Amino acid sequence: MPVTVLLVDDEPLVRAGLRAVLEAQPDIEVVGEAADGAAVIPLVRRLRPDVVAMDVRMPLLDGIEATRAVLRTVDDPPKIVVVTTFENDEYVYEALRAGADGFLLKRARPAEIVHAVRLVAEGESLLFPASVRQLAAEYGADGGNRAARAVLERARLTEREAEVLRLMARGLSNAEIAARLLVGTETVKSHVSAVLAKLGAPDRTQAVIAANESGFVSPG
């Protein structure tokens, strides 16, 4: 089955460019478009996309609030990639903290766009881990750090779970973590699931943000 994608951007040319790049791939299908975040929820419910590629800045409802709305109100929500002009943008970090699974630059090359959609759909790796660390270093507020530290302390990760979280924060996939630790992929999947459950994180991105903001791993 192809990876299905919903495009959300107030610029028709951006949507047209993303559609052209993605639909050139045999395993990706663009199932719909919207010009504002306010239209996302009904489209997600009707089209059930695997991935939403959503502009972070839109006139009525921006990508941050649209991300929160989708994750709060939609059962089995899609993966969300926010699309942005600037990489080092507080809006992008707020979208990630709101639950987005990654971000994509509008100037990205076609191969990078395709890779990002596939990677987020698979959900077994972190998109642009170095950039996430940099954003956490710049925009992770002191209050957020205290809260994140409390989450990590309450989680009481085992030594192996802590090791897996550190490797997740570096952007390693389950297969790469398995090779590094000399264990099976299924074992790694079990550790990742345990880490997410203990942190109360819905996905790897949120776990890695908590790890960076808490000081468990060094941001930047």
TrEMBL record:
Q: Tell me which CDD domains the record gives.
A: LuxR_C_like (cd06170), REC_NarL-like (cd17535)
InterPro entries, alphabetized: CheY-like_superfamily, NreC/VraR/RcsB-like_REC, Sig_transdc_resp-reg_C-effctor, Sig_transdc_resp-reg_receiver, Tscrpt_reg_LuxR_C, WalR-like
Q: Write down the Gene3D superfamilies for this protein, in alphabetical order.
A: 3.40.50.2300
Note the SMART domains from the entry.
HTH_LUXR, REC
List residues modified as 4-aspartylphosphate.
Answer: 55
Q: Which UniProt keywords apply?
A: DNA-binding, Phosphoprotein, Transcription, Transcription regulation
Q: Does the keyword Transcription regulation apply?
A: yes
Q: For the HTH luxR-type domain, which residue ranges apply? A: 150-215
Every copy of the Response regulatory domain together lies at: 4-121
Give the PANTHER family listed for this entry: TRANSCRIPTIONAL REGULATORY PROTEIN NARL-RELATED, TWO-COMPONENT RESPONSE REGULATOR
Its name, as the record gives it, is Response regulator transcription factor
